[in-house]
Design brief:
The chain is built from 11 helices and 13 strands. The protein is an alpha/beta fold. Strands 3-2-1-4-5-6-11 form a 7-stranded parallel beta sheet, sandwiched between helices. Strands 7-10 form a two-stranded parallel ribbon.
């Protein structure tokens, strides 16, 4: 009996590895696309076309990790690696004799504005400005461009994924280093790392900061629910467009850090202002945006379509991934 085919682009990250295991367990024959294959390489468009043609499911997670410093080289690669790979896949789907029935493409909940007042749903969410938002906007524009009548497209606006990945590792390191108290935004020396990018860069070019007093919201999702949501969206032929992948139990910085301290048994957690976080994040080779931006994405589409979260509460989810 011939097995159905699923294509995963960018399967080397921790989300990709989890989806690879899940789709194999679901009985799919996998074709993997990456810089070095094994089944298709980005440098060989013909191999990408062969991989996509005849597949039932296409999942694209390709893109340089944002767990880095936003210098000019990394900024350009973060944008290019998302837009160009998505364009290659769209061209392959367009040319396929038997295109995939569904294409699930990664995106990010960071596309929404800094929000303290209300959650951002797919229907009423307001887009923000600046580098991360411009990357997400360009990524989704490329994904939804053109007409693909045989393929249903879903953009996965993922919140911070809790699991064996870079965001969780960074948060745990901060807690264990004693910086697991409230994290306050505030003044820092002017820089342009967060300025807009792409064809129509947005924002003023200045690094934003807010007097959040540790109230910034923290939207997250457990890796098990990323897998569960992908399966749910794959099987629901009535769902397309943008979908927020975020747990319903959005937290805030105060709750996040106190929960982390309790779980890792950190004896104390110093409050950290931006002037303390900037050097710490520089040493960790990442950006303070991870803990200072107020992300508040709500999973309206998933909940309204009947998806039941395996890990809806933050403390249980953190204890599970840190066990």
């Amino acid at each position: 009996m011939t097995r159905p085919i699923a294509v995963i682009a960018g399967a080397s990250g921790f989300v990709g590895r989890a989806l690879r295991t899940a789709l194999e367990a679901d009985g799919y024959e996998l074709r993997l696309i990456g810089r070095d294959g094994p089944d298709a390489r980005w440098s060989d468009q013909a191999s990408v076309r062969r991989a996509v043609d005849g597949a039932q499911v296409l999942v694209n997670l390709a893109g340089k990790s944002v767990n880095c410093r936003y210098n000019d080289r990394n900024r350009d690669e973060i944008l290019r690696s998302r837009v160009e790979t998505t364009r290659q896949l769209r061209e392959a789907v367009t040319d396929a004799a038997a295109p995939p029935a569904v294409w699930l493409n990664a995106s990010t909940a960071t596309i929404y504005r800094y929000a303290l007042d209300r959650p951002q749903t797919e229907a009423d969410g307001e887009l923000g400005t600046g580098f991360s938002v411009d990357v997400a906007r360009s990524w989704e524009e490329e994904f939804f461009a053109g007409d693909l009548p045989g393929t249903r497209r879903v953009a996965l606006r993922m919140a911070i994924v809790l699991g064996d990945g870079p965001a969780t590792h960074t948060l745990v390191r901060l807690a264990r280093l004693g910086l697991g108290g409230l994290q306050f935004d505030g003044w820092w020396f002017p820089h342009r790392r967060y300025r807009g990018i792409g064809v129509h860069p947005s924002g003023t070019g200045r690094a934003p900061w807010h007097r959040s007093h540790g109230r910034q919201r923290f939207s997250w999702i457990h890796i098990d629910d990323v897998v569960g949501a992908v399966r749910h969206l794959r099987d629901r032929a009535d769902l397309d467009g943008v979908v927020n992948l975020a747990a319903p139990g959005a937290s805030d910085n105060r709750t996040l850090m106190s929960t982390l301290r309790r779980i890792v048994r950190a004896p104390f957690g110093l409050p950290a202002w931006r002037f303390m976080l900037e050097p710490a994040m520089w040493a960790l080779r990442t950006e303070p945006e991870l803990v200072l931006k107020s992300r508040w994405a709500a999973p309206a589409v998933l909940l309204d379509s009947g998806y039941r979260f395996a890990h809806p509460e933050l403390e249980e989810a953190l204890r599970d991934v840190l066990a």
